[in-house]
Amino acid sequence: MPFLDRKKFIEEGDLVLVYVSRTIIKPIYVKSGEHFNTRFGSFPHDSMIGLEFGSQITTPKDRGFVYLLQPTPELWTMSLPHRTQIVYSTDSSYILQRLDVKIGSKVIEAGTGSGSFTHAFARTVNNEGNLFTFEFHETRYEKAKEEFLKHGLNNTIITHRDVCLNGFQIEGINSLDADTIFLDLPSPWEAIPHLKNQIAINRKVGICCFSPCFEQVVKTVECLQNDGWIDIELTETQGRLFESHKTMKRDVDDAIKRLKYVKEKQREGLELIKAGKHPRKDNNNDSGLKEKDYGFNPFGRGKRIIEGEEGFDWFNVTRLESEVKTHTSYLVFASKMPEPKRII
After folding, report:
1. Was 135 annotated as part of a binding site?
2. Residue 100 annotated as part of some ligand binding site
3. CB-based contact 342:278 (threshold 8 Å)
4. Are strands 106-110 and 130-135 parallel, antiparallel or unpaired?
5. pLDDT averaged per 10 residues in sequence order, the chain, 344 residues
6. Consecutive H or E run containing 138
7. What is stated as this protein's family in its record (predicted)?
8. Is 264 annotated as a binding residue?
9. Rounded to an integer, what distance in angstroms lies between the CA atom of residue 47 and that of residue 130?
């Protein structure tokens, strides 16, 4: 089970996530005789077999390289083929923690969609737990079922069902005995009443409804209140990616030096124009002028300095990336406590 069990070496038929760049990760199934093509060149699958996961490989002509990564739910989320909007790790990691999902948990998920969150649930509950996922769209259901089989999600049962109309009952199972519910549906308030006979009665049950519109939130909260759920809370998560790097300290002397440099270049340029010569010719032209070396200037042109190079004053700064790959919605959490036992 590649998403649950770790392995060291790549074998034929394994799912490998090929890291081309930070924004390009491609899933492939390693097959002898096939190739993975990129703008850097072609990578033969035969060269991957037998390597350790995490290895770097180059093209036969050393024009480029990629990394061969072992599948994880987080990497799969970044590389999977989208059939619907998906739950990114920004939300899924928080939901798993908030609902206290752990090894042995029993989870109900509806709908399955592209299967992004399904993989995170399956890894977390592990072989000791169970995941029951429902998808109403037949084509998406068939595709997800095929992927789960290839990925070895043996603890996952996927069902083709519109839970808003037909509930969560699975043939041959009296009760799913679930302690975790995740609903990513257009109208979760229609599905919530069907949960009554499918959740655990002897332990705490947590639910999360993933809704992009506030009108959906209002209806969901009303339904949860009417159905006896407590501790209802609305949360929204937002992802931010910070990059850290070093920058050189700048002072007034640097600025003055830069201004003097610009003024000198302007004066030289005007003299060349008056003499009928082009000011942007090579430094070794018939003007006889040569480029002056003013040393490193953090405000403009100068010598190329490697970040953090000794001999200069540096300090650490962070920069916020303008775009983060995520799709967040309103998260409505609630819970049900086990029925109290009467002591006679």
Report:
1. yes
2. no
3. no
4. parallel
5. 80 95 92 92 94 92 90 94 90 96 97 95 96 97 96 95 96 95 97 96 96 95 97 87 77 82 86 76 48 50 67 78 66 91 67
6. helix 138-150
7. Belongs to the class I-like SAM-binding methyltransferase superfamily. TRM61 family.
8. no
9. 37
